[in-house]
Amino acid sequence: DDIYRLTTGRTHPGSDCFIFSRNVFEQIQMGNLFLGYPPTANALLVQAESLADRYTMFASNELKATYHLGDDRSWHDVNSANLEYEMLNYETAYNDLHHI
To answer: Rounded to two decimals, what is the model's pTM?
Structure first.
């Protein structure tokens, strides 16, 4: 596939690929967040960083291991019904995960 031969492109502005041990995975708590809406990645990122023995963060295109096609951020459109999920996620993250 030509997509895997890409050498240029913009760095993804968020975090969307996580690799961690089973031990870390089993300790992660996500509450009742809707996946794919902010701040899901941040909730996961903070926990992975604090639970891992070794933590390294790479830019999205640094390893050429994943590619993000498109960046319309439709979830962030104030006129979108998706905004309700985003706002609910922030409330849920605070209520369910503030103890982490």
So the answer is: 0.72
